[in-house]
Amino acid sequence: MSVTDAPETVVIVGAGQAGAVAARTLRRRGHGGPIVLIGDEKHRPYQRPPLSKEYLSGEQERDECFLLDEKWCVDNNVDVRIGTAVDRIDPGSRAVELVDGSRVQADSVLLTTGARARRIPGVEGERVIYLRTLDDCDQLRAHLVPGQRIITVGGGFIGSEVASAGRAAGADVVVLEALDVPLERVLGAQMGQVCARIQRSGGVDLMTGHAVEAVEERPDKVIVRTQQGVTVEGDVVVIGIGTIANTEVAQRSGIAVEGGVLVDEYCRTDMSQVFAAGDVTSHWHPLFGQRLRVEHFDNANKQAMCAAKNIVGRATVFDDPHWFWSDQFGVNLQYSGHAPQWTDLVVRGDVDSGCFTAFYLDDGVVRAALSVDRGEDVFGSKELIAHQARPDPAALRDEDTELVDLAAG
Questions:
Q1: How many angstroms separate the CA atoms of 367 and 244, rounded?
Q2: pTM greater than the 0.85 cutoff
């Protein structure tokens, strides 16, 4: 299918990062027909990373979070409908059916419905925050002041960024982490210890090995009890224990779902001319040879661009090695790749100095890399992963050896 044969109307269900990027890409790649972008939140499309980073800390203004300029949408015939919930896609007519009973006829549909915060059953309240939306962030910002005590459940990237913002604002912060070290499942025990050290050096009371048993909200405080018999009191509790893909529209439409909307390497679902991108997908990754559900900002961008290209007939495989970053306590962490298991951990630089890159090798193949205050290694690391390189570990450690040369070799 050529660009001139591109479908006349594209409906994007989900008005977040992926949806906004897809709309822009469709126009840049030659799609001339109408684009309808539908989102159930009351806000226009906005970025989520600032909600635990710059906007949360007050370094970024609210207006800077928004993605699509209203004038651009008018000039480019992009109809943005916010506060509008979609029920399903009719598999016969490919009409997008809204909860209010109306329909939007589409030639192609892109699902970018994202994900929602995973919740602890029965744990809700004014002093309980599941940080996912702009409104959640505004609620939390009110507590980022001296004298407040913030409890974070989950010591992963979101939890640690919230802790960092809280400490920078002068609040006391307690982090409850169920594992022995933060991010142990992703980074392993050694690198998890590095993350623990970063948090503790930033003034956080990090309590590892503590799983939450109960949360009690009172008018003036919140009380968290752990399964280990410890009670922690604070002014607010932020729960960051992962997300759940918003697959309901796909399920009601009869589209295959398994932990996320199942898509192939072209971002195609099993329904004709229906694509999906971003946090909602469980995508087949040809580089890693398995399905992945990835919640990263960069993945939402790149997968949305890939899906848009395929919608207009520019056959494009999504095989990006994945990358994300975290800024916390003055330290920059960047992770690329995917390593559910590894046989060797090779470090370039000095862990004790806090400036290094750790490479995760599985039977000699570089599968992932964690860079701590060493951004210059990130591009080379991604090249190694993309090329499934098998570098000599000694050369990988040697800081005089260019990583891109190892990828090429």
A1: 25
A2: yes
